[in-house]
Specification:
This protein is mainly alpha-helical and about 70 residues long. It has one domain. Helix content is about 80%, strand content about 0%. Helix 2 runs antiparallel to helix 3. It is elongated.
């Protein structure tokens, strides 16, 4: 196996990280919350998504921290 092939196998996808996965779920939750309240304005979607992303991304970082300690 060449060095280039080893680097591509050792590299992980960004979606393998819990913080990224949960942050994307937070964005989806914010958009869903906006639509469920009957609004379609992008400002409300961003406003509802930011707290969800911060909370779920923080939980993802905690999960990654404890998984890396093993």
């Amino acid at each position: 196996m060449t060095e280039g092939e080893q680097n591509t196998q050792n590299r992980k996808s960004l979606l393998d990280r819990w913080s990224v996965r949960l942050s994307l779920i937070g964005v989806a939750m914010g958009i869903f919350t906006t639509f469920s309240q009957g609004s379609t304005q992008i400002g409300f979607m961003i406003g509802f998504s930011i707290p969800c992303v911060l909370v779920l991304g923080g939980i993802g970082l905690v999960i990654e921290y404890f998984k890396s300690k093993k």
